[in-house]
Amino acid sequence: MNFIDGSLFVENMQKLVITAAPYGPEWLPSDFPEDIPVSMDAQIQKAVDCYNAGATVLHVHVREEDGKGSKRLSKFNQLLAGIREACPGMILQVGGSISFAPESEGDTAKWLSDDTRHMLAELKPTPDQVTIAINTNQMNVVEQMTAADVAGTSLANPEMTRAYREMTIPAGPEWVEEHIRRLTANGIQTHFQLAGISQLETVERMMRRGVANVPLILTWVAIGGGFEAPNLYNLANFVRACPDGSVLTLETSMRNVLPLNMMAIALGLHVRCGIEDNIWNQRQTGKMTTVEQIEQLVRIAREFGREVANGKEAREIYRIGTFYENADETLARNGFAPNRKPRVEVARHA
């Protein structure tokens, strides 16, 4: 992205799109009972509350009635339908890390198999987006967490910590290209969750080959543990690598969330918050609900003079429902340089 004169003036920025991640699948309900919804009605109401506070994108996970994270396709369909009815203006973004447990006794459990994750393209009602990781990668989400971050929570249990420490994302090229094809065929936007510039370069190469004819809507996930760390130098390098036609949201974890989001607001980028990313206030004197985090970002954006996008505006910024015909159009619309053309040899005459 190019920051020419006037780039830091709010009149030259897109309105701010706030993504809320309120379902926090890494936490148990006992970790934050005031803000972790368990019943289906409570999970739907949480989406409504986030939208009313100013968030226009909802990062969707779902829980069973016992509070555990659900892996059932039917449960996601139920939540999506409930949110669509209660909050039709919200952009529904399903987290691509979901795996589905068997529907009934005797069925085979499929944990994050390629075929299982492809089922995200078949959700009904259709979500607006599904997130996708690029290139198989370590995802140690607890690497940057401190003892104070997990004190009093289930993640203070060494076995729970180890489970997340050893997590990896399987995202090889064949699966990724097929997944984008299936999402596109069903009118679902691919939202790229990227750990660094090398993954952005892979996305660009796919677009140059014509196998990802989609808008470059992406999140820089700066959580360490196989992803980049949330520091100024990594951020600047990643932003500089993004073409001007891309739409970039920043994501990090725990008490890095607020500082990084303040940078995003100032730079004209977009933000993500919620208990999936952080449960604490900055002094760690108490926990913050997802709605409180959204309200905080709205206040800060207003101090900057930057308006917060409503649902209709967020859809336009995210280009929901937009797909491209070929590589040339994809590159042009996303702000990449065009593909090289073969050199034409000039015949020499004696």
TrEMBL record:
Note whether Zinc occurs among the keywords: yes
Q: Which UniProt keywords apply?
A: Metal-binding, Transferase, Zinc
Under InterPro entries, the record lists: Aldolase_TIM, BKACE
Which cofactors? Zn(2+)
Protein name per Swiss-Prot or TrEMBL: 3-keto-5-aminohexanoate cleavage protein
Query: Source species, please?
Result: Variovorax ureilyticus
